[in-house]
User: What shape does this take?
Amino acid sequence: RAKCSPVCAWENTNCCMAHLLSKQDDFTNQLSMLETVIRDAGHLCIFLPKFHCELNPIEMYWGWCKYHYREVQKRTFEEAKHCAQEQLDVCPTDVIRWFINRSWRFMSAYQLGLTGRAAEWAVRKQKQHCQVSQAAMMSIEAVLSHPHDHI
Assistant: This one.
């Protein structure tokens, strides 16, 4: 078979030619066209994990724009289009920087081994730097080591 339809079963390792080829080194190491265009322009192409919007400042920016868009009264489709463009343009630079720093703090928390609510708490506790501080980590360890004292 050339290709499974619609997709290969998860547990299959050699079900079709497309699946076998996808496992070969020259295919797995091949950059996509998107990656090639981005790198040729002198930028880094970083693919973030799915379902982790806290690692992507663009998601926070988009959420900020959508929130402010909903706050504006729009009577016509033309007004709605104009408002959408306006909201994308008016997000302050310091807010965008805050989104980027927040993403970096989440990355730092995950690199330190925190997950879930502990990572959220550390990011909320740490405000001034791009990473989670040692003091925040010590606070988390104190809370986790004596959970009955903080209920």
The mean pLDDT is 83. The chain has two domains: 16-47, 55-145. DSSP finds eight helices and no strands in the chain.
